[in-house]
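Title: Comparing notes on inverse folding

I've been comparing how different people in this forum approach sequence design from structure. To keep things fair, I'm posting one structure and asking everyone to reply with a full sequence. Here's the target:
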């Protein structure tokens, strides 16, 4: 199976570019968009969840490092959000090189993609409006989770691993 490569090099370059200006002004807010899946990664989302978890760790570190310079760092952890990344993922199944190994999981793979684009998911515009409203506050929050599945994935984060594994096997019918 060909795994997607997610890099946050662009995020790092942008942060490195704006920090000196924010330091001079002694204010600013860096907003990184992670994902709630970083808390409780499920099947078929390993590379994506790992990439987002790395961004969460970077944000947590920067928040502490930059606080004394008047710079806030906020991590946005969206849940199910209708977006191009989700709608384009379904097209990738036709590109799986070793499909014979995954054919029996096709329904589960497609469900994983569809779940973030289905009924009850927030729109990207709604998420963006809420984030902007929070960023413009005098003291923006360090963490903002919003969207479908944020509550259940937060609970799974604190649950024992055996329970998380059981939950995913049950839900994803694996």
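Reply #1:
Here's my take.
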């Amino acid at each position: 199976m060909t795994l997607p490569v997610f890099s946050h090099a662009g995020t790092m370059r942008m942060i490195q570019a704006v920090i000196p200006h924010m330091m001079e002004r002694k204010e600013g807010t860096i907003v990184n968009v992670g994902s709630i899946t970083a808390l409780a990664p499920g099947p078929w989302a390993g590379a994506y969840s790992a990439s987002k978890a790395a961004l969460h760790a970077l944000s947590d570190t920067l928040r502490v490092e930059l606080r004394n310079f008047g710079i806030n760092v906020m991590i946005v952890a969206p849940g199910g959000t209708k977006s191009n990344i989700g709608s384009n993922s379904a097209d990738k199944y036709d590109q799986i090189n070793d499909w014979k190994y995954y054919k029996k999981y096709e329904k589960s793979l497609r469900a994983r993609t569809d779940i973030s684009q289905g009924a009850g998911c927030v729109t990207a515009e709604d998420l963006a409006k809420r984030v902007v409203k929070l960023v413009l506050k005098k003291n923006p929050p360090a963490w903002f989770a919003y969207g479908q599945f944020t509550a259940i994935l937060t609970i799974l984060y604190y649950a024992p691993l055996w329970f998380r594994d059981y939950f995913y096997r049950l839900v994803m019918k694996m």
